[in-house]
Amino acid sequence: MLLLVGAGCIPRQQTPQNSVSPIEANQPPATEILANPALRTSFEEAARHSAIAYIAELSCFPTSRFDCTSDGCVPNAPGTYYFVDYGTDNGTYFRCDSKDCDSYPVKATPSGIYTQFSPSTGQAMLFKVTTDDVLGSKGEFVDVATIGTGTIVSFGKCDSKNPSDPRAPARWKIDP
Fold this sequence. Notes:
This protein has a single domain (37-164), classed as Lipocalin (Beta Barrel). It has helices at residues 37-49, 51-55, and strands spanning 58-69, 72-76, 81-85, 91-96, 101-111, 114-119, 125-130, 140-147, 150-160. It has an 8-stranded antiparallel barrel with strand order 1-3-4-5-6-7-8-9. The protein is built from 2 helices and 9 strands, in the order H-H-E-E-E-E-E-E-E-E-E. A hairpin with a 2-residue loop joins strand 5 and strand 6. It is globular. By secondary structure, the chain is mostly beta strands.
C-alpha cells in the first residue's frame, strides 16, 4: 500500500456544494481579527513623517492576517505594515511594526496585473500587489513570510504615497 502525505498543505474547510471556498474565490476567509489601533497610529505617523515613507512608492496596511502551520491556518491580528521602494535598480521592502522597520533588498517582477517583490538576499518572504484595476482590485496585496516552518499570510491594501508625486509609477497615477 502506498500512502502519500502532502507536506505543508493547508486543510481545506468544508464548503457547501454550490459555494466557492475563499481560496477558489482568491479572497481571504471572512474570519478576521482587526489590527491593534496602535499599529494603525504607528503606520499613519510613519506615512506622514518618516524618511522611509518619503522614498517609498507604496505604503501598505493589512486588513487580515493568518498564521499557518502544517495543522492549518488561524486568524490573528495584523502586526506589521509595509513600505516598498522600487523606483531604483535595487528595490527595498520595509516590514514595520509599531516600534521599528526592517529593510530587505528586493527584486520587482511585473507579471500581468501584478508586481511581485522577492528577496534578493535569501529572506523567506514574498510580497505581491495588484498594479492594474482590471478586476477592481488595484493596490490589493498579499505578504507571505515564513518563521521556521510556519507561515504568516497577510492581506491588505496599498496606496501610492502621493499619486501626483512625479516619482510615483505611472500605473499608480489617478486618471482625471
